[in-house]
Amino acid sequence: MKKVLITGAAGFLGSHLCDRFIKEGFHVIAMDNLITGDLKNIEHLFPLQQFEFYHHDVTTFVHIPGKLDYILHFASPASPIDYLKIPIETLKVGSLGTLNLLGVAKEKNARILVASTSEVYGDPLVHPQSEDYFGNVSPIGPRGVYDEAKRFMESITMAYHRFHGVDTRIVRIFNTYGSRMRLNDGRVVPAFMGQALRGEDLTVFGDGKQTRSFCYIDDQVEGIYRLLLSDYTDPINIGNPHETTILEFAKEIIKLTGTNQKIIYKPLPQDDPTQRQPDITRAKEILGWEPKVGREEGLKKVYDYFKSLTPEELYDKEHRDFSGIA
Question: Which label site among 35, 123, 198, 213 has the fewest CB atoms less than 10 Å from its CB?
Fold first, then answer.
């Protein structure tokens, strides 16, 4: 049985990856410090013999006993609310955490896939964004803690690949949505869903003309899985190229939920990207991958998930007390 270490395993993406690798017959070693992750996302896996969990912060020394075949490094705050509250921890997990896990991969002769992001493109000056675009990022802006952590992650990963011969993969993840997202994490899908379910007006930042491209979780996991098992070592975009404006998306949510809330406008946050659309030519050609789940179908599934939440979860405004962290 192949062994895979998944960091950030109790988070949104990490927990779905745990499910997929269990389904594929792997022994899964899950690791999370639970700063933003939640054990409820993986508690259904605890009874399984082929699953184990380590409550550990990857910015400190990481030791995995015995043989290890693969590492998926998904530990990181991923929502603006989180990484703006814990900026130093965000930088540390992208730098020190990645360094530690690359060391484990080198020691174990394991293949490592690191989770980068479309945020490495910043507020892009080219559209759509292809992997050979170097980006437009402010390293000293408030979002720079996340953007630059991921850009450093890519740089050190390629350095370990070239200098030490470590077997590496880099995925650039575009906006992804699905079950197990937190309603209060600041990302647009859960934010709109939560506001609709609570009977609140939907908040659009700026004029709503900024664009995003939303990929359903099952499609995202499939792309990541294919990339891990491929022979390709340069970065690959995994996302849905069907672009929409935030304003149109808000209207879709109102129609889906059958609510009649107003749309209200607030100032656009600093350095918020005005366009986001992946060029997935490379993923199609190299991985034979493209998304299968349309936005209408995916949003219905997510809405059913959010409707199943308890009132406490629906009205919870704060996820964690971050005081004293980092």
Answer: 198
Closest by CA position to 203, among listed 193, 214, 215: 193
Instruction: Determine contact, residues 54/39, Cβ cutoff 8 Å.
Output: no
The span from the CA of 161 to the CA of 148, in Å, is 20
Count CB atoms within 10 A of the CB of residue 156: 16
Residue 252's Cβ-count burial label (10 Å; 0-12, 13-18, 19+) is middle
Average pLDDT over residues 276-295: 97
d(CA 109, CA 84): 35
Tens of pLDDT, residue by residue over 8-33, are 999 999 999 999 999 999 999 999 99
Cα distance between residue 206 and residue 1, in whole Å:
50
Q: Which of 70, 83, 121, 146 is catalytic?
A: 146
3-state helix, strand, coil in the chain (%, to 5): 40, 20, 40
Phi, psi of 141, rounded to the nearest 5 degrees: -75, 165
- Is 216 known to be catalytic? no
Task: Please choose, from the candidates 202, 302, 295, the residue with its C-alpha nearest in 3D space to the C-alpha of residue 247.
Answer: 202
pTM: 0.95
Give the closest residue to 277 by CA, choosing from 220, 202, 215. Answer: 215
- The residues with which 4 forms a beta bridge, in sequence order, are 28, 70
Q: What is the dihedral of CA 317, 54, 6, 48, to 10 degrees?
A: -100
Distance between CA atoms of residues 100 and 94, nearest Å: 10
Judge contact between 61 and 100, C-beta under 8 A.
yes
Rounded to an integer, what distance in angstroms lies between the CA atom of residue 302 and that of residue 104? Answer: 36
89 vs 82: CA distance, rounded Å: 10
